[in-house]
Amino acid sequence: MFKLNLKPCLWLILFVCSNFVFANNNDFKLMVVDDNASSKAIMQGNFANSLETMNDANNYIVPFNRCVVSVKLKQFDKADQDCSQAIAMLKKVNAPHYKRNELTSYALSNRGIARLMAKNDTAAIADFYEAVQLNNNELVSFNLNLAKQELKLW
What we know:
The protein is 64% helix and 5% strand.
């Protein structure tokens, strides 16, 4: 008889879900992991509802998306903690290396935004550079370049 182990299947589903970007054209790009509940509320700007749908403490998506909500609510210390928790959880996820790096780079970039807004410039720029090293994609590169402009590093 065929027996299906659901745990690896659930992780695979989480990793093939798309990511959303929450920003205006000239703003920092906050990345949200699509979990169909909180992500839709976040994208609509309904932050209270998005927090209500985040209840799985064993899932990196919860602190990842909660970080975005905290940044939007200007709770930068909370955002820093949530992103740090997501980064730590992502290190333990059994997933392809490239996907784990991509998601970790997004979480680092989000934490960099939180730290920059909290006036922790040195930690913020370190996060942006680490994010680009993990996965040099358009979104994290945009955030690094915008941070360098704001900090007058070029």
